[in-house]
Amino acid sequence: MNRSENLISVLTEDHRDFQQLLAELGYLADFDRLRRSVAELMIAEMVRHAVAEETYVYPVARARLPQGRLIVEQEIAGHEQIERILRDLGRPDLNAAEFSFHLSRLEAESHPHTQAEEDRLFPLLARHLSEEELVDLGRKAVEAKEKASIRRYLADPDSSLRDRIVASGTTLVERVRAYLRTGAYPL
After folding, report:
1. Which parts of the chain register pLDDT below 50?
2. Is residue 83 part of a domain?
3. What is the DSSP string of the chain?
4. Residue 182 in 3-state DSSP?
5. Distance separating the N- and C-terminal Cα atoms of the chain
6. Using an 8 Å Cβ cutoff, are 71 and 61 in contact?
7. What pLDDT does residue 21 have?
8. 93 within some domain
9. pLDDT digits over 25-77, tens only?
10. Cα separation of 13 and 168, whole Å?
11. 38 within some domain
């Protein structure tokens, strides 16, 4: 991690990655297997990002920001709404029209959420935390992100997370949250 990378830049980079994945998914309507793999990646990465914020950002925001508790409650509500949509988007039985519908819902919900973070939460963090604190938190977030990577599983088309999730009876959102809480982001 570059010395200039801090928690805010790491999370903002995630936001840009999500925008890119959403755009790519919009062009994959006719390629079911590829669309499913990209969707699985996006779902897992969005959940990983949410857990990182809940682990590294929200405790600090509650303790150090004016109206921190209220801000965190609003952020958590946003995560819960996005994860409801991710659960719908991750259903293995979706046809192309249903997938597009849920993808549109996700775009409509996630864009205002990330914009609010970048316009309100991140500037408050920059004002109330030192650069050293932000860099330290950024380093921890990057380390956890590397530990939480599921890209290697998604690279093998015969090793679909979707198949394992259907067999387990849980959704990708729950499986990623459980994995992160026991591995990369233990509480």
Report:
1. 1-3, 152, 154, 161-162, 164-169, 187
2. yes
3. --TT--HHHHHHHHHHHHHHHHHHHHT-TT-HHHHHHHHHHHHHHHHHHHHHIIIIIHHHHHHHSTTHHHHHHHHHHHHHHHHHHHHHHT-TT--HHHHHHHHHHHHHHHHHHHHHIIIIIHHHHHHHS-HHHHHHHHHHHHHHHHHT--HHHHT-TTS-HHHHHHHHTS-HHHHHHHHHHHTTS--
4. helix
5. 23
6. yes
7. 86
8. yes
9. 888 766 777 888 888 888 888 888 888 888 889 999 999 999 999 999 999 99
10. 32
11. yes
The amino acid sitting at 46 is M
pTM score, whole prediction: 0.78
Measure the CA–CA gap between 138 and 57, rounded to whole angstroms. 10
Q: Is 2 contained in some domain?
A: no
Alpha-carbon span 32 to 93, nearest angstrom: 11
Tokens of 14: 């995630």
